[in-house]
Automatic annotation (TrEMBL), chain A:
SUPFAM superfamilies per record: MetI-like
Record function comment: Required for the activity of the bacterial periplasmic transport system of putrescine and spermidine.
Residue span(s) of domain ABC transmembrane type-1: 69-258
Transmembrane regions: 12-36, 73-95, 107-132, 138-157, 185-207, 240-261
This protein's name: Spermidine/putrescine transport system permease protein PotC
Pfam families the UniProt entry points to: BPD_transp_1
The organism's place on the tree of life at top rank: Bacteria
UniProt key word NADP: no
Location within or outside the cell: Cell inner membrane; Cell membrane
Membrane topology of the entry: Multi-pass membrane protein
UniProtKB/TrEMBL annotation, chain B:
InterPro entries per record: MetI-like, MetI-like_sf
Entry annotated with the keyword Heme: no
Pfam family, one: BPD_transp_1
Compartments reported by the entry: Cell membrane
Organism listed in the record: Aliiruegeria haliotis
Name the record gives this protein: Spermidine/putrescine transport system permease protein
Residues of the ABC transmembrane type-1 domain: 90-297
Keywords associated with the record: Cell membrane, Membrane, Transmembrane, Transmembrane helix, Transport
Similarity remark: Belongs to the binding-protein-dependent transport system permease family. CysTW subfamily.
Transmembrane segments: 25-48, 94-116, 122-140, 231-249, 276-297
Length: 268, 309
């Protein structure tokens, strides 16, 4: 009888949860392990070695990967920075700007990149650049990345701002701070964790994007995902597993930082 | 696509009301110019005439939509019949995305329920563990899946070494591999919204049902499930919608036979064999399907919100 009233525990749910985690992590762990394989074949295990990591940096493909990495990281930094600034401004208007006509519409526009399927955004952006006669390359990738990074930066920033009571800025204004000063010296520092977490998420999203980049990159310009995709099309090579593991590491570190930063409560 | 898309942050004060136009202008400009205008341009392109080397001729034409739905024979002079090729590709995509959604629900619901019933302090850690894989590059995750599922890959080696199967099972380049790939790609999207709604659930309701001699499964089905339904539907949409237009999973795991919408669209813009207006039309049809799903969903959420409040 006791077990029947214990409605919080169902038999088998623990097992399924463990299975869920195994499914989510197994492929990533397998690739990480095999990236340390000493063998030139991806099927045979010949012991631990850093051979393929060395290959990424000094091997025949190292120039290609280096250029791609520089493109990827420079685009991610610029796109995430710009998107974070735009998203912080937008969040201030949406959360601290009272109710106004067009607010729902503005939110619809900001979340548009989340609703439109990626392949559709990719095709649309390609068509658009073609129609206005823009040559595809580094700049077009950057522009597209800034656009789809905005909602990812906006969501944590707006959530954070909503959690900060308006009384802080009102107190500052009562003490003769201008609105700009109240924003700069009171709201912005309190917003810190939200802004950092928004920036990091936008950064990962930009770094990870394949589909949209693949459409708007034009010939010759590669980012890490498009370079990896091109390589994988000819079969999975061990150096691809090494580069994937490094990229995977970057994402995990960034998300972990974002998690701990956003948990930090500095309004006390 | 991330969770929480349906809920914008609410207004707290009107301190910066007079500056709001200027504050919103950059977002409007960038999103209007690089997302909204492109979608509009895509709609225009879907009604233009194709140029054979890719690109378009600026002449109005319904050829793209006509090619999608009708077969007029090799020379275009026969009576129009329904063209099944592309409809079948869309149908297969819906089917694949649907199965991936069902698989996510079967694994994701119990997981979400389990996490939501843990002590409050450890829940964020569980949620964090579920979220990490989502932030790992989708391409890398799909490649990892391809590596894992190969005929002589680690999964088959493992299954043979424990004696479950005597020879490798062939998974890669099948429909099932694509379903697995989609399921794996978007599983966190199922867990998170379901978790959010089960966490808010008032468990005394289930306890009351149990006190009145309802069995545990009846309690789950008749008491809990109706209450957390909005979360379950949100999870299903967050898995189904991105699966529908997915490109990487069918391309890397499915091989040429298991074509989905994403690959059909992509093909029209690559190389010289492409047909831009047709690709734009196919993308428009996909976008319309997604918008209809999201609108029905938004309506339902608004309705259940009213009932609850």
């Amino acid at each position: 009888m006791a077990s029947n009233t214990d409605v919080r525990n169902y038999p088998g749910f623990v097992g399924i949860t463990i299975l869920c985690l195994v499914i989510l992590y197994a492929p990533l762990i397998v690739v990480t392990v095999y990236s340390f394989n000493a063998s030139a074949s991806i099927t045979v295990w010949e012991g631990v070695s850093l051979r393929w990591y060395a290959d990424v940096f000094t091997g025949p493909d190292s120039e290609k990967f280096k250029t791609a990495a520089v493109n990827s990281f420079s685009i991610a930094i610029m796109a995430a920075t710009t998107a974070t600034v735009i998203a912080t401004c937008a969040a201030t208007a949406m959360v601290r700007g009272g109710r106004f006509r067009g607010r729902t519409l503005s939110f619809g526009l900001i979340s548009l990149p989340l609703m439109v399927p990626e392949i559709v955004t990719a095709v649309a952006t390609l068509i658009f650049f073609n129609a206005i006669g823009f040559t595809r390359g580094y700049t077009t990738i950057l522009a597209a990345h800034i656009a789809f990074c905005i909602p990812f930066a906006y969501l944590p920033i707006a959530a954070r701002m909503q959690g900060i009571e308006g009384t802080y800025e009102q107190a500052a204004q009562d003490l003769y701070a201008t609105k700009v000063q109240a924003f700069r010296y009171v709201l912005l520092p309190l917003m810190g964790p939200g802004i950092i977490s928004g920036f990091l998420l936008a950064f990962i999203i930009s770094l990870d994007d394949f589909i949209i980049t693949n459409f708007v990159k034009g010939a010759g310009v590669e980012t890490l995902p498009t370079a990896i995709f091109g390589s994988v099309k000819q079969g999975i090579k061990p150096n691809i597993m090494a580069i994937s593991t490094m990229l995977l590491g970057v994402s995990v570190v960034m998300v972990t930082i974002s998690y701990f930063v956003s948990k930090k409560d500095n309004t006390q | 696509m991330a969770g929480g898309a349906a809920t914008g942050a609410s207004v707290t004060t009107d301190t910066y009301a007079e500056a709001r136009t200027w504050l919103l202008l950059p977002a409007w400009a960038v999103l209007g110019f690089f997302v909204l205008a492109p979608v509009g341009m895509m709609l225009v392109y879907s009604f233009l005439t194709k140029e054979f080397r890719g690109g378009v001729i600026w002449e109005f034409s319904l050829a793209a939509y006509d090619q999608f739905f009708f077969d007029r024979g090799l020379f275009g002079d026969e009576a129009p019949k329904i063209e099944w090729t592309y409809i079948n590709i869309f149908w297969r995509s819906i089917w694949q995305a649907g199965l991936a959604t069902v698989m996510s629900l079967l694994i994701g619901f119990p997981t979400a329920y389990f996490i939501a019933t843990r002590p409050e302090k450890v829940r964020p850690i569980w949620v964090f563990l579920i979220t990490i894989p989502y932030w790992v590059n989708l391409l890398i995750r799909t490649v990892s899946m391809k590596f894992l599922l190969r005929d002589n890959g680690p999964l088959n080696e493992f299954l043979m070494s424990v004696g479950v199967v005597s020879e490798p099972i062939h998974i890669i380049n099948t429909n099932f591999a694509v379903q697995l790939g989609l399921f794996y790609s978007y599983l966190p999207f199922m867990v998170l919204p379901v978790y959010a709604s089960v966490e808010r659930y008032n468990f005394t309701l289930s306890e009351a049902a149990a006190d009145l001699y309802a069995s545990k499964w009846t309690t789950l089905r008749r008491v809990l499930l109706p209450t957390v339904k909005p979360g379950v539907i949100a999870g299903c949409i967050l898995v189904f919608v991105p699966s529908l237009g997915s490109f990487l999973a069918p391309d890397l795991l499915g091989g040429a036979k298991n074509f989905m919408i994403g690959s059909l669209i992509e093909e029209q813009f690559k190389g010289s064999a492409g047909n831009w207006p047709f690709g734009a039309a196919a993308a428009m049809i996909l976008l319309s399907m997604v918008l209809v799903i999201l609108m029905v969903f938004a309506r339902q959420q608004a309705k259940s919100g009213k009932e609850a409040g």
